[in-house]
Amino acid sequence: MATERRDQGPSTETSSSEYRDEEYEAHLERSRAVWDRWSDRYGMSERDFEPIREAAIDRLALEPGDRVLEVGCGPGVNFEPVRREIGAEGELVAVDYSPGMIANARDRIDARGWENVRVRRADATTVEFEEPFDAALASLSLSVMPDVRRTVEHIYRSIGPGARLGVVDVRPAPSGPVRVLNPLIRRFFRWYANWNPDGDVPGSLEAVFDDCEIVDTHFAGTAYTAICTKRDGD
Ligand SMILES: C[S@@+](CC[C@H](N)C(=O)[O-])C[C@H]1O[C@@H](n2cnc3c(N)ncnc32)[C@H](O)[C@@H]1O
């Protein structure tokens, strides 16, 4: 990915909260249904991606006291590793659209007695926060958003200058013989996750962030980790 920004940052012509159309709403509602359905059976995905998520969190170089935003937190699989880095004095604010996932995330928080981890049921593309975050994390969530570019723009606006966004996500195989399986991979992603076929996560990250790099790939390139940094002074 290029290290230079292609545009002048997120568009301000139409605010995210004004962006509503039937396709967007239909995608959001499908996501709610799909992820509510999976909310009680998330163990396999949790285990398979655990080392990848943890490596992405390491790359955020979090510090004690940091405020972190998590986008599409699911049942809270990242809470423990993030909290380990930010300590009891930091704060993790996690957003998810599925009530079932939010209930599981709350159970996890209550069971651990974490007072500095908060969850909100909201659309990550429009939810507003009072203060900018020191870092953000989106693992396996950006590619299921109804409008990927707008979600990335919204995250950009929600973090402070110099802050990093860590992304773990999936995509059809970008190269190599596995590409013959891409039609099947796309269908599986859509069925399993309500993956957005029109969304371009790497392209959106590159367009919106000043500095963005795919730092790791996994499973024949069908999964990747990207780290993006917001320019100081923005
Ligand atoms: C594959 S799960 C990822 C969960 C977790 N981050 C992980 O790494 O396992 C995708 C999550 O994104 C959430 N999601 C989908 N659309 C969303 C939206 N518009 N706003 C917030 N969360 C959303 C789903 O409810 C689901 O919990």
Automatic annotation (TrEMBL):
The keyword Membrane does not apply. Residues 68-162 form the Methyltransferase domain. Residues 1-24 are annotated as: Disordered. InterPro entries: Methyltransf_25, SAM-dependent_MTases_sf. It comes from the Archaea. GO terms for biological process: methylation. GO terms for molecular function: methyltransferase activity. It holds the Pfam family Methyltransf_25. Gene3D superfamilies: Vaccinia Virus protein VP39 (3.40.50.150). Keywords: Methyltransferase, Transferase. This is Methyltransferase domain-containing protein. It comes from Natrinema salaciae.
